[in-house]
Amino acid sequence: MPQKKWKISQLLIHLIFILFSLCCILPLISILSISLSNEVDILKNGYSLIPRMFDLKAYTYVLYRPIQLLGAFKVSIMVSFIGTFLAVLFMAGISYTLSRQDFKFKNSLSFYVFFTLLFNGGLVPTYILISNYLHLKNTIWVLILPYLAVPWFILLLRSFMQKIPFNIIESCMIDGASEFRIFFQIVIPLAKPGLATVSLFTMLLYWNDWWLSLLYIENEHLVPLQYMLYRMMNNIAYLTSSTNMMPPSMKNAELPSESARMAMAILAAGPMLAVFPFFQKYFVKGLTVGAVKG
After folding, report:
1. What is the pLDDT of residues 188-237, one digit of tens each?
2. CB atoms within 10 A of CB 9
3. Which one, 2, 124, 155, 190, has the greatest CB density within 10 A?
């Protein structure tokens, strides 16, 4: 009898997780279906999990200039990987310093990091600093440097590195290891779950960013993917509103508004969905950093 109850409970748990998984997967299937659907059918009958009228007009519009789109992909991939590497290395160094028990100014620096989490310099001073003093406008570095130090990620890594026994670090120091060697050969390998989690979040931050390019990028060769898709969506909205104001005799074919929006979502999310499995092994452990104190 206890075994039967155990099987029923296991079945219920599996059923709950299956339903939860479906709730996560069905929106992705719906987005793919809408991107492959006819725009007129979407406006008349709404969304569906299976395209009622198969149509590639949305992808034809989005991929109208493939070379320009590939260039935007190249910029986004370069910014995401270079920015993630530099940002994680920089934030790991700060976090390691804050986690050291023998660091004299640990509390003062921690307060400074926490203070920047609550307040920032403002848009106008930041724009003046980046454009007039640092001269980063219309360079690839303007898309990388502003996210090198994210306070929340620094505090997350610090919480993880505080769990590394200080006795290990002391032993390395007694053996004559330098601080750089301790950091790169001891701390970094032990902090893999936290680093993997922060790396994923940082990569998503770089990949999804369009705000920096809107402010600082005018060179078409430096436009990232998200900003290009943002401009496409604005163009569709403008053309749609202009078409609605025209007489019926002058209206063109229906523009792929909803289907193009979903096609852009597929193109933007595809690379990140491919990257996520490489971080999945460490992701859960990294997210629970600091949840249990022992």
Report:
1. 888 888 888 899 899 999 999 999 999 999 888 899 989 988 888 887 77
2. 10
3. 155
Can you tell me the distance from the alpha carbon of 285 to that of 287, in angstroms, rounded to the nearest whole number?
6
- Following DSSP, what letter does each residue of 3-14 receive, concatenated? HHHHHHHHHHHH
CATH for 64-287 (3.30.200.20, 3.40.50.620, 1.10.3720.10, 1.10.10.410): 1.10.3720.10
Instruction: Provide the token pair at 285.
Output: 């452990």
- Lowest mean per-residue pLDDT among 160-174, 238-252, 264-278: 238-252
Contact assessment for residue 104 and residue 92, using Cβ atoms and an 8 Å cutoff: no
**φ, ψ of residue 212 in degrees (nearest 5):** -65, -40
| Cα–Cα distance, 30 to 224 (Å, whole number) | 26
Which amino acid makes up residue 208?
N
